[in-house]
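PROTOCOL LOG
Step 1. Enter all chains and additional molecules of the complex.
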Amino acid sequence: MRDYDIIVIGGGHAGIEATAASARMGLSTALITGELAKIGEMSCNPAIGGVGKGQLVREIDALGGVMGYITDNTGIHFRTLNKSKGPAVWSSRAQADRKLYREFSQHLLSEIPNLSLVEGMVKEIVALDGKFDHVIMMDGRTIASSACVLASGTFLNGLIHIGEKQTPAGRVGEPPSLHLSESLQKLGFQVGRLKTGTPPRLDGSTIDFDRLERQPGDDDFKPFSLLTNNRLTNRAFCYVTYTSKQTQEIVERNLHRSAMFSGNIKGIGPRYCPSIEDKIHRFRDKERHQLFLEPEGLDTNEIYINGLSTSLPEDVQLDVLHSITGLDDVVMNRPGYAIEYDFFPAFQIKPSLETRLVEHLYFAGQINGTSGYEEAGAQGLMAGINAALRLKGDEPFYLDRSQAYIGVLIDDLVTKVPTEPYRMFTSRAEYRLALREDNAADRLIKYGKRFGLINDDIYNTYLAKRQMIDAEKQRLGRTMALISQIDSSAANGDKCSLGVLLKRPAIRYQDMRAADEVCREFPADCAKQVEIEIKYEGYLDKQQREIDRFKQFESKVIPDDFDVRKVNGLKAEAVGVLHRFRPVSLGQASRLAGVTFADITVLMIHLKRHTSGSVSRETL
Amino acid sequence: MTLPDSDDTIVAISTPPGYGGIGVIRISGKQAFTIANTIIDTTVNIMEAKSHTIHHGYVRGAEVGSITDEVLVALLRSPNSYTGEDVIEISAHGNPQILKQIVGLAIDSGARQATAGEFTMRAFLSGRIDLVQAESVADLIAAESAAFQQIALYQLSGKLSAYIGSIRAQLLDIGALFEAYTDFPDEEIPRQQQAELLAKLDDVIESLTRLASSYRRGEIIRTGVQIPIVGPPNAGKSSLFNVILAEERAIVTEIPGTTRDTIAEKIEIEGLAVLFVDTAGLREASDQIEAAGVERSRREIKAANLLIAIFDVANTPVEKIRSSLGEMPGKTIILALNKIDLVSNAISDAYTTALAHYHPVLLSATTLVGVDKLVARIASVIRESMHPSSADGNVLTNKRHCVAVQNALGSLTEACTKLEQGESFELMAFDLRQATNNLEEILGKITNDDLLAEIFSRFCIGK
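Step 2. Run joint prediction.
Step 3. Record the structure below.
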């Protein structure tokens, strides 16, 4: 007897998305987690978005996920990063109220039909004949379902390091999951170990904010979610401060006491989010390092110090804090720490996130070697959708690298050997100019609609806006105006179309209001879109040609039954890599390290024969 | 076009068609040794003999007990062979009938007739050589001059690929900086880095510009130089042509207008293939045939960058020579003043002085006086046209490569402009990526099977 269609293990950002998606797609879904009150916890900083990550959040939202909506409703400080650069890399970021985020997430899940919340720790995953069957809980209960999404975060054999001290934990104050990882290894999965870290939390009432640079939020922030109609208000500030010469001395003097440097930590840490000891050790010449003080919430004084992740002993952490401008007398609420945890290198999953070893079992989030809420949320959503599609008998849902950051993320996961926790960057996306926050809905809303995750109202509102934008672009193209009326530097008398004028770097949409009545009336958010699309047109055309070429290789499918070991002419290294990663297309194969272009050509020849029967000898 | 199957064992005659002292048959693929073992009788066991050994033997005939030929068979085991596969090379007597029979026997034993360039394609597919190297093999075989042969060898050695690869690495390096600016908005990056970036980009642009401009030189090296010999009727064009070629190639008479059609012959000067073209004398034609010839001469002049203008000092006034030369602006002209054996030293000196601007070469195509000087002059002009020094082996000889380099240059120039105008980094990063892709195309990192099939179809079968 099945208790549910789908169970999701873990109540973090991946688990929430997976649960919400599968329940809303009509499947009875249970979310199992150690402590229900911790669903929606932000284990690290209380912020959503950032460079490359804001793009992920908007994509999740366009597909019908919940992260953007929760953030809009619990955010207290909203900002667009990279504003001085082009729209392709504008990235939204919000500080959320940690407590509100948790509460809102739990409330949101409680309102979704078909959804149950189950408290308890899973001890074992049981598969029968290579197919997921049920889980056994620590208290001996069994829960059976047709599919399972495992989103266990840093809980698998989690071990916290603070200086010389080590404590088994999944997150500070919560026990780790000690048996689940072994149960997966028994099923044949290969395990690896990663490390991540978090900075100390401070008592804000002991910080001298007057001496620090204040960072206000943006007034015209565009909400993350298509569901949000109201303007978002900034209700808190962030602050900027810097390490000092003294900080450097303290860290260097105590380097041997850091868990990172003493050799206690075996897992690999991220290069892009280095601990303070790492930064100071590696960049000795740099006089100071920038730090951000971020509020944890509206009804708390607690402050998160972004940029000061560390595994130094508690007493040293306090010395370090006191050496920082504005923190001379700061009280530390709790120390920063490093955490090591088990993960399962992602060559063991398919691009649908289903595991190769166990059918109907999906992995999402840190278990696949990623880091970050947004990366986790994206995978959770995709795993939830794919598990639901699988049970309905539909084809799996993939996004490729030209369609979404989510596509880039998953493709990177299944084609690369992880060397550190994976974080999204815009530079990972080769079609970055086409994958913008502003066009996330253009790219993805149709899928959200198809899966029933985007309702008709939202979809129709989107369509109406899209039509307005297209109509305005066309109108600008055919409306002639005196150039001098818009661009004061131009000579008198010359005319050109508003569309051509808007292509000029210095001309903004609002500049045309002087000469054109319709522009004056046109809604601001649509106007922004019009401007971006017209200004980027040339680049997008060029990028499209690259995408077309990319698709040629992506569309050359490598069938499931194709055995690379039988292909004559492939080098042994390539056979090994291809057999391990099992790429689904020639394009994906070409991105594997150890596979050369010559190997791809050999594969191409064999695939042709594989698909078209046999090549007749006469034609050769 | 599709690429042929890479599983088969292939066979072809690898020496040129026709009769020769010996002829070589090459067999490559998994079955090569088995096939050789089936069709050849030797004292050693081919299946077990060491790689890179040569053995004497007999190719069996179609009938039991008969013999097709007495041969030497070379055994080259994978991966240490031209294709990277097991290879058998059979040196037989150079009779086309015998060679065909041996190929037929191999095919009967399971081999397939190789398609054009297929051996080289297998070398490429086995990862032994990259695309630039593969293309250079075709060039090397077709090379008509020592200089082109040198370039092709240089490319085959992988040095050009390595050079392009090093430029690609520089681009990736610069690109990483642009990416860092984009992905870490909080990182403070010193302003001076902008100047550094620009300088680095300029370096790459300079290297690529040099490479792109080498194509003209490369083309000269590949196809040679074409030098028409032009001038009025009876100036001695055909005589000079014959003298330079050292053979009676063109018909020479005293009748003006003897040469009706252009004739071309190639010789090697300075390691380059130089094509001399004898043309019809330039004048109002007396009949339709001559008129067509004169028209061809004019076309040759128009197409040429370098030409020899020859005049008869015994019959042509200085003014006439000057005005004729004036009608050929923008050309590199080697001025030959012919028939000095018919005039006094004083007169020839007067011509030299009057036309000093053109550095005329005085000569007589009949007595051969001054001909050496003319040939030396041609050589020095060719040397100059090869400028900058050909010591740098990184010369493009392939149109495909040149187009890719030019595209890369276009993108990089755009990136520089944007950098100077202070535009956003993600746009420059885009240009840089495009340029990187262009260079990767040359090396065959991104390409498609049509392109491959086209490249390898340039080969003759057996390579």
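Step 4. Note key features.
Residues 4-197+341-450 of chain A form a domain with the FAD/NAD(P)-binding domain fold (CATH 3.50.50.60).
The longest strand of chain A covers residues 142-150.
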